[in-house]
């Protein structure tokens, strides 16, 4: 099962030295296949994104993604972009630039739309209870989704324990994404 590490300002900070130290530690500890730099409020997003891209490049085997910014992802030569669920129209642009695309989804219809529009993968959430993310979908809903789609799906939302991983591993899911599990 693929692992997708997602950063947050709350856990990684926006102080460059601390951010890099914490990210490097978590990559070495958990060995994720994918990593996302996500910080919706950082006015210096591009500076930290550049450090993130460099650090991921130094860790062979980690695919690096930037949150929402297609042009910056291309400029920094990261693997791809992780689009918000409001950015379906950007899938084609990102793909035309040679970027891999992961997009956030919250309904089965959104997953099927992402598949139709050519996204490489989706996050589907929330699977388990997660702060401010609404009612959890649960494992049965995830299993139902995986029966009707062909796109790679990362389970996301409230995944913080070994027990959560064991439940997810009982499905055909491509991988899991988390902020708190990887910290």
The CA-CA distance between the termini, in Å, is 19 Å
- This entry's quaternary arrangement is single chain
| Helix content estimate | 40-55%
Gyration radius, rounded: 15 Å
Name the CATH superfamily classification. Aldolase class I
What portion of residues belong to β-strands? 15-25%
Number of helices: 8
Kindly report the average pLDDT value. Answer: 96
Question: Which stretches of 5+ consecutive residues score pLDDT under 50?
Answer: none
The run of helices and strands is: EHHEHEHEHEHEHEHE
CATH class: Alpha Beta
Characterise this structure.
This protein is an alpha/beta fold and 183 residues long. It has one domain (2-182): TIM Barrel (Alpha-Beta Barrel). It has eight helices and eight strands. The protein has helices at 9-12, 16-30, 45-58, 70-75, 91-96, 108-117, 138-148, 162-169; strands at 2-6, 34-37, 63-67, 80-83, 100-105, 121-124, 152-156, 175-178. Strands 1-2-3-4-5-6-7-8 form an eight-stranded parallel beta barrel. Strand 7, helix 8 (162-169) and strand 8 (175-178) form a beta-alpha-beta unit. Helix 2 (16-30) packs parallel to helix 3. The longest helix is centred in the N-terminal third of the chain and has 15 residues, at 16-30.
């Amino acid at each position: 099962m693929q692992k997708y590490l997602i950063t947050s300002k709350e856990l990684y900070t926006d102080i460059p030295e601390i951010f890099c130290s914490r990210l490097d530690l978590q990559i070495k500890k958990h060995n994720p296949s994918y990593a996302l730099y996500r910080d919706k409020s950082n006015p210096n997003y591009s500076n930290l994104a550049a450090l993130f891209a460099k650090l991921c490049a130094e860790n062979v085997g980690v695919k690096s993604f930037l949150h929402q910014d297609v042009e910056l992802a291309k400029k920094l030569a990261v693997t791809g972009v992780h689009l918000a669920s409001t950015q379906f129209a950007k899938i084609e642009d990102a793909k035309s630039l040679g970027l891999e695309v992961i997009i956030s989804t919250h309904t089965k219809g959104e997953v099927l739309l992402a598949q139709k529009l050519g996204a490489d993968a989706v996050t589907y959430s929330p699977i388990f209870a997660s702060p401010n993310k609404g009612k959890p979908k649960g494992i049965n809903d995830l299993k139902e989704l995986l029966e009707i789609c062909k796109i790679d799906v990362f389970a996301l939302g409230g995944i913080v324990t070994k027990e959560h991983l064991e439940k997810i591993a009982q499905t055909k899911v491509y991988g899991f994404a988390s902020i708190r599990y990887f910290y």
